[in-house]
Inverse folding.
């Protein structure tokens, strides 16, 4: 049962970046009640784990539990003020799954560094597949039904470039960390994953994703130590990836969407007009006005309740593009405090004890998703919580054999619309 549960967890991690693959429900501008393929595998994994009878003992996690309780209580309170009660209640159920079921499953199943590496590698492989699909969409106009292609920007296996940028940024950070991990075999596929994900980021046109991926990867390089050979290798890969991405875009008449041009357009430096910075600021101001109006209970967790700004240029409403204000505005103060407690406890475990490559990998991933979520509506997505949930398998010290709930002698019995 345990081995089957672990394998299902690996498959779920692989499908996690493939948001277009759903087996139930739907994701639209007003609803997000879909059940993705990765969700199904995670549920199955938890089910097999629950049926197993030889689970090892795991220690309590009091701080995380307190945070999860506050998130649930705050979320339930906000449901009474939501525009769509059932949709808001569904989001509470998603948070219960992530903070309770998924977290406990990880702590039982990811009980050594081998499984930690396999779970992360599976996620990276899924990101590489999504990046490859984005290339096929732009170059050959294939698989458009599973993702999207708008104005020369390919979304891969997602429905919006914000989603593509966020999970590919985390994937590239993890891929870089795996390639430099001294206890992971540096096989050729790590470089292949890096190339596919990076080119996928370029053709998606997600400026935020590119910046966060580059920042997370540079953090890994700094933590592993700067060496001339590594700098040369990284430079060669970056130049090759950039040239490949620009060649693909240029071959489709979209050379104006190269990363530098995208940055100028997104910040308004290119035309002084339409950009994605001004609406982001508008969503933050709108959220703050709502927080002042009701700082305790929030306004609901459903998509409609999340909208804080109307961009009159395109007549589209957007949710808060900042995960802290988003949590406070939608879920209320208790929901926000609970989120911050869980995130803080996970970060503490990443930093606690001696420095370790596996901890560095999780910390780099956490920083990448945090920076991305500070300017995007990224609070209820599993790939946002992925590094933090994995960190709950750690207990400090080196991570050679067991990410480490207990010493060996103690375990003998053991989707709303978003701005591009």
């Amino acid at each position: 049962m345990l081995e089957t549960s672990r394998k299902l967890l690996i498959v779920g991690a692989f499908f996690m970046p493939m948001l277009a693959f759903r087996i139930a429900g739907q994701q639209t501008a007003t609803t997000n009640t879909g059940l993705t393929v990765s969700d199904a595998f995670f549920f199955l994994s938890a089910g097999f784990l629950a049926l197993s009878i030889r689970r090892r003992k795991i220690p309590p996690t009091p701080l995380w539990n307190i945070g999860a309780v506050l998130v649930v209580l705050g979320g339930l309170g906000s449901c009474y003020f939501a525009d769509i009660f059932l949709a808001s209640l569904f989001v509470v159920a998603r948070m219960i799954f992530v903070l309770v079921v998924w977290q406990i499953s990880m702590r039982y199943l990811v009980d050594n560094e081998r499984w930690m590496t396999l779970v992360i590698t599976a996620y990276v492989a899924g990101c590489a597949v999504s990046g490859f699909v984005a290339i096929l969409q732009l170059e050959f106009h294939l698989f458009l039904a599973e993702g999207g292609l708008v104005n020369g920007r390919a979304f891969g296996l997602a429905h919006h470039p914000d989603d593509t940028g966020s999970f590919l940024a985390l994937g590239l950070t993890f891929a870089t960390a795996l390639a430099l991990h001294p206890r992971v075999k540096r096989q050729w596929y790590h470089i292949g994953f890096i190339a596919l994900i990076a080119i996928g980021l370029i053709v998606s046109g997600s400026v935020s994703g590119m910046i966060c991926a580059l920042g997370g990867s540079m953090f890994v390089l700094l933590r592993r130590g700067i060496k001339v050979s590594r700098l040369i290798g990284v430079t060669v890969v970056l130049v090759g990836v950039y040239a490949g991405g620009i060649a693909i875009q240029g071959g489709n008449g979209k050379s104006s969407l190269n990363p530098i041009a995208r940055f100028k357009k997104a910040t308004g430096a290119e035309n002084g007009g339409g950009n994605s910075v001004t609406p982001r600021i508008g969503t933050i101001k709108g959220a703050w006005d709502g927080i002042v109006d009701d700082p305790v209970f929030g306004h609901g967790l459903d998509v409609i309740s999340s909208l804080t700004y109307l961009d009159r240029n395109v007549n589209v409403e957007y949710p808060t593009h900042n995960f802290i204000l988003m949590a406070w505005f939608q879920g209320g103060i208790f929901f926000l405090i609970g989120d911050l407690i869980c995130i803080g406890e996970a970060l503490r475990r990443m930093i606690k004890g001696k420095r370790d490559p596996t901890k560095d990998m999780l910390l780099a991933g956490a920083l990448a998703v945090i920076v991305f979520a500070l300017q995007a509506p990224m609070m209820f997505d599993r790939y946002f919580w992925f590094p933090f949930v994995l960190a709950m398998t750690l207990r400090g010290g080196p991570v050679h054999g067991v990410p480490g709930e207990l010493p060996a002698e103690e375990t003998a019995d053991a989707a709303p619309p978003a701005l591009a």
Q: What stands out?
A: The chain is about 65% helix and 5% strand.
